[in-house]
Specification:
alpha/beta; six-stranded mixed sheet; 21 helices; 25 strands
Length: 679
């Protein structure tokens, strides 16, 4: 099936040219391409058109879950008749296993798996292995972590066809091998139920339930049924059931893996005994033998991913299988915000390796655990086929790999142009800034002030407080969720000026902002290079009166290049508007409203599938304040609040509202600490 793009809009501005250039370049066999599009120019719509014209399976890589959820929603709307899938980490919260030798502290793995996201991950892998070509997978960088061997996943899939000879008992055996569970109760995902010659099977993902009816050793019929009532919905000729877990493997591989684990366990025990480390030898013996007993009896154990090398048949140091192995060779990779996403890919391996080294060194895990890891960057590069880097400010890596194949997209559908830039001397800069702020405040517009140090941000904020300017500051010491709260307060007109360090990293997208002020603009470095200056200036690009002021005593090379690029873009945008009679329109607020909960605001009923109730959360909002001084709740009341926080965390995560889920998780943890302190 081909991709079918559905949209009430047609490509406008320079979108048609960008689409044509990218499609032509990729069809010529160019492996690396860059789409350099300004903020608000419709880069996602451009990529949707490229996907529709190329008709290749596609992965869209994003650097965090929230942005991935937004992209998933957009592509789902663009391609309602095609397989648009979502693949991110399925943990609502996750505390990895770790050991701190300096304090002799072992931290056990603690996690909560989101069943809905796990089903979506299975749906993504199943769609890729089904042979469909019209598949788009929107993913975070978690797609580069190890998952099961695609050959094993495919081998344990069960294909059923009406009229074929199939042993009834063999089908039940194969379902168990694919990690489905037999039940006599109501069907839930990845379960099956037998009644005479009828087998009801609930698929591992989605809400599909199949009824397979046998006549002797022949499949007589297959029906799609309602799992609650059993009512037949549709008659099918054939169906394919995919495994209930991505780490599924065959019995032969399990037997072979268990033998290899025993061999390596013996080697590790001998190593510790020769080193005179009896405690580590006993520790690794107990832990691994317990895991092996679980694997032999149940087919899995807690932490089975640490033995993935044995089940995959990989050698020591060999990279794990990942989602990219499930794609055909001619797939298309789109890396969104590549200047952020690619450095994240770079850093993944090192952080994981450092934690695993201690676990192996002190006998908590076999050395093979180190091969359960994300991909190294060179391994990632070897798997990347045709790729498109999408960013307003591509980094050197993307530009080098693209070798000049850079497509620009400068025209915004709203008609907004890049904000004009001014350079002003630092002499009396605060007085000058106060005048600019007063002008904006009278118009109910907002101002961002970008400082170069945290201390300067705080000092400037205190000064604004003294002179009566409504303001807040934001930098890396401010917790992530509090940053979101601050941004929501700004949108709610709680203050007028936001002061911060390197604000471009906060994902700001505020159409209310008409002025961006950059202090110490001539201080060359990471915070004041071309990419940073361009990103900061872009925060004013969603307002028709947007402007940028740089305070500096000289014009650095980065400032000069940033201004030249901005002037070039402005000229093209103004000419286009004049030629087409286009008047700038106020940009709409982007995003899906996910962070409204953080401000305690009521959200529309249709904004999420599972509404989160803010019931009696005055307690949870400030757990420490009221109760350490004078406890007002009983232990039973606190337990009730913990259960409530957990329920709302799970509902938020099911709705892909990860920011809200994180907030409820933190509330739950604080309440647990309070309860433990009462014992």
């Amino acid at each position: 099936m081909d991709f079918k793009l559905v949209s009430e809009y047609a490509p406008t501005g320079d979108q048609p040219e960008a689409i044509a250039q990218l499609v032509e370049s990729i069809e010529r066999g160019v492996g690396h391409n860059t789409l350099m599009g300004v903020t608000g120019s419709g880069k996602t719509f451009t990529m949707a058109n490229v996907i529709a014209q190329l008709n290749r399976p596609t992965i869209v890589l994003s650097h965090n879950k929230t942005l991935a959820a937004q992209l998933y929603g957009e592509f789902k709307n663009f391609f309602p008749e095609n397989a648009v899938e979502y693949f991110v980490s399925y943990y609502d919260y996750y505390q990895p296993e770790a050991y701190l030798p300096t304090t002799d502290t072992y931290i056990e793995k603690d996690l909560s798996i989101n069943d809905e996201i796990e089903k979506m991950r299975l749906s993504a892998t199943s769609a890729l292995l089904s042979g469909r070509r019209d598949v788009i997978v929107v993913s975070s960088v978690s797609c580069l972590y190890g998952i099961g061997n695609p050959d094993d996943f495919h081998a344990t899939s069960i294909h059923l066809k009406v009229g074929e000879t199939q042993s009834y008992k063999l089908l039940l055996y194969r379902l168990v091998e694919a990690l489905y569970t037999r039940t006599e109760l109501d069907l839930t995902p990845a379960t099956f139920r037998t009644r005479g010659d009828v087998v009801d099977i609930m698929a591992a993902f989605g809400d599909y339930c199949y009824r397979v009816t046998f006549f002797d050793s022949e499949i007589e019929s297959i029906h799609l049924i309602d799992p609650a009532s059993g009512q037949r919905i549709e008659s099918l000729e054939e169906v394919t059931l995919f495994p209930a877990n991505m780490f599924v493997t065959t019995k032969e591989r399990i037997d072979k893996a268990v033998g290899n684990i025993y061999v390596d366990l013996g080697k590790r025990i001998s190593f510790f005994e020769k080193e005179g480390r009896a405690m580590e030898a006993q520790r690794i013996k107990q832990r691994v033998e317990y895991d092996l007993e679980m694997i032999k009896e149940l087919g899995y154990c807690s932490g089975i991913e640490n033995y993935s090398r044995y089940f995959d048949g990989r050698g020591e140091g060999e990279r794990p299988f990942c989602l990219l192995d499930y794609f055909p060779k001619d797939y298309l990779m789109i890396i969104d915000e590549s200047h952020v996403t690619l450095p994240q890919v770079h850093a993944m391996y090192g952080g994981d390796r450092a934690r695993k080294e201690n676990l192996v060194e002190y006998g908590f895990r076999l050395p093979a655990a180190k091969d359960n890891r994300p991909l190294m960057f060179n391994e990632f590069e070897s798997l990347v086929g045709t790729s498109v880097y999408v960013s307003a400010t591509p980094a050197e890596y993307e530009m080098r790999k693209s070798e000049g194949v850079v497509v620009e997209q400068l025209i915004r559908p709203t008609g907004l142009v890049d904000p004009p830039m001014q350079i002003r001397p630092t002499l009396n800069q605060i007085d000058d800034l106060m005048e600019e702020i007063n002008v904006r405040v009278r118009k109910s517009e907002k101002v961002l002030v970008c400082t170069i140090t945290k201390r300067m941000a705080e000092e400037l904020s205190r000064y604004f407080d003294r002179v009566g300017v409504r303001n807040r500051y934001i930098h890396s010491d401010v917790e992530t969720l509090e940053r979101v709260q601050i941004l929501e307060d700004m949108r709610a007109d709680a203050f007028d000026v936001l002061v911060g360090v390197n604000l471009l990293r906060e994902g700001l997208d505020l159409p209310e902002v008409s002025l961006v002020v950059i202090m110490d603009a001539d201080k060359e470095g990471f915070l004041r290079n071309v990419r940073s200056l361009t990103q900061m200036a872009g925060r004013a690009a969603r307002h028709p009166n947007g402007a940028v002021i740089m305070y500096a005593d000289s014009c650095s090379d980065s400032m000069r290049e940033t201004i030249e690029q901005s002037n070039r873009r402005r000229d093209k945008q103004i000419r286009y508007n004049a030629l087409h009679g286009k008047m700038p329109e106020v940009a709409k607020k982007s995003g899906t409203g996910q962070s409204l909960l953080l401000a305690g605001k009521e959200r529309p009923a249709d904004m999420m599938a599972y509404p989160i109730v803010e019931e009696h959360y005055a307690v949870a909002a400030d757990v420490q304040g009221g109760y350490n001084a004078e406890p007002q709740l009983s232990r039973k009341d606190i337990d009730h609040q913990i259960d409530k926080a957990r329920e709302d965390m799970e509902r938020a995560a099911k709705s892909l509202d990860f920011l809200a889920a994180a907030r409820y998780r933190d509330r739950m943890y604080e309440l647990q600490k309070l309860r433990d302190g009462m014992e």
